[in-house]
Design brief:
The chain contains 16 helices and 15 strands. The protein has about 450 residues and is of the alpha/beta class.
């Protein structure tokens, strides 16, 4: 498969849809979501089998949930022609397509990330070419096969959504240099390649969401939310909560709530070291631990856990760069830390984020507005999610106003171009028509320098 030919086909399709009305564009965007919603089960099954990671049932919920929230967030939004006209300012804003979007997508989300990227691309009048992870290629190809009959029904070109059938690093890099704009959702190497492609690029940073528990919350409710965040899809979601940072005076009660709801708490240094070596041999993530069940991870560490355990919580002696366990663990494992003051809690989170995950997010379970705002002011993150399930709500939810997405920018902290959730409006250019402002006047020097 030649990349130049794929891009040529994609560009021809893009020229066709560039002339579509808003209504016709939205009809295509809706189909991109509805196909995944209607085929959530078989697509989840294929994704779980091909990627060999995660939880089949969670992938079904992810497919349906993301399809639902993304379409709901996009319908009714203008993305064609004149978007707005500010008469007082004398500015008219005009949307114009970028062209062909190249999207490198991960095996952790082989359905919803291509779907999301395609929805954003088409919303802006663009076409898209997917470069899937090799362990997600069959899933991406099946997604295209499901889309094409719907495209035929709508009378739109099939080449609007293309997939590299036999993806390699070389082909993905070639694609990124040939398209007009790049979305890279994957590892650091992939994101670096995107930013080195010479094309406008949107990448993501690594996750390592720190979880802060305040003294004024219902500990059991907080535990339920944080456990749900950590174990969803066996911990492969970048927004999954990685730690429990609780006050010394309530530490036993907080961890007790976690244990009551299925956690296995381990503070034995020998067992902790066994997990450390299993998860981070030579200081690097063990790929055999990614997306594995808690039983499989415990077996890797050679540590027995009680039947029915949902996740393991380890209590290391140090945080930040002093311990590899401070980093992102893409499996049902968390770390726990004690603090004396809220300022110390935030500092623990900061040290862990500076070790890995700066720019991403923090999970705050608190009802104290001053504490919440302090965390928001002090921590190098793009999102502070309050009293929610971070793994499933950090990428936008009906309960909050974050833009629904599967690509979470981490700003300059994470070497990314945006410090917000990637949205449809990032994928079209904007022309500004500047009229003479009504009743304008030049202020006097005295007014300017006053």
């Amino acid at each position: 498969m030649k990349i130049a030919e794929l891009v040529e086909r994609s560009r021809a399709a893009q020229k066709v849809i560039a002339g579509y009305s808003q209504e016709r564009i939205d009809a295509v965007v809706k189909v991109l979501a509805r196909v995944v919603y209607d085929n959530a089960d078989p697509l989840a099954k294929l994704a779980a089998e091909e990627s060999r990671m995660g939880v089949y049932e969670d992938k079904i919920n992810k497919n349906r949930g993301k399809a639902r929230i993304l379409w709901h967030g996009l319908k009714g939004k203008k993305s064609v022609g004149i978007l707005e006209y500010d008469r007082e300012a004398g500015i008219a804003l005009v949307a114009k397509p970028m062209g062909v979007v190249g999207a490198a997508t991960p095996c952790t989300n082989p359905v919803v990330t291509p779907m999301c990227n395609a929805m954003f691309a088409v919303k802006g009048g663009n076409s898209i070419i997917i470069a899937p992870h090799p362990r997600g290629r069959e899933t991406a190809k099946r997604l295209a096969e499901l889309y094409y009959p719907e495209f035929d029904r709508l009378g739109v070109p099939r080449d609007l959504f293309l997939v590299i059938g036999e993806p390699t690093i070389e082909l993905t890099n070639e694609l990124m240099k040939a398209v007009d704009v790049v979305i890279a959702t994957g590892g650091a190497a992939m994101v670096k390649s995107a930013y080195s492609s010479g094309k406008p690029s949107f990448g993501v940073g690594p996750g390592n969401v720190q979880g802060l528990v305040d003294d004024d919350v219902d500990f059991e409710e907080a535990a339920k939310k944080m456990i749900a965040s950590r174990i969803f899809d066996n911990g492969i979601i970048c927004s999954g909560t990685q730690s429990v940072i609780a006050s010394k005076k309530n530490f036993k009660d907080v961890l007790g709530a976690f244990v009551k709801n299925g956690a296995c708490f381990i503070d034995d240094p020998v067992k902790i070291d066994a997990f450390r070596k299993a998860l981070f041999p030579d200081g690097k993530v063990n790929k055999d631990s990614v997306g594995r069940s808690v039983g499989e991870v415990a077996k890797l560490a050679g540590v027995e856990v009680p039947p029915g355990t949902k996740l393991v919580i380890l209590k290391p002696a140090a945080c930040g760069e002093k311990d590899h366990l401070s980093g992102e663990k893409m499996c049902p494992v968390m770390t726990a830390y004690e603090y004396d003051t809220w300022e110390q809690a935030v500092e623990i989170a900061r040290e862990n984020l500076m070790y890995e995950g700066a720019g991403h997010s923090v999970d705050v379970q608190s009802n104290n507005r001053d504490h919440i705002e302090y965390a928001g002011l002090k921590l190098p993150v793009s999102r502070v999610l309050v009293n929610q399930i971070c793994a499933t709500q950090n990428g936008g939810a009906f309960s909050n106003s974050l833009s629904p997405t599967t690509t979470l920018g981490c700003g300059s902290w994470g070497n990314n171009s945006i410090s917000e959730n990637l949205a449809y409006y990032h994928l079209f250019n904007k022309s500004r028509i500047a009229f003479v402002r009504e009743n304008w006047r030049q202020p006097s020097d005295e007014e300017i320098w006053a």
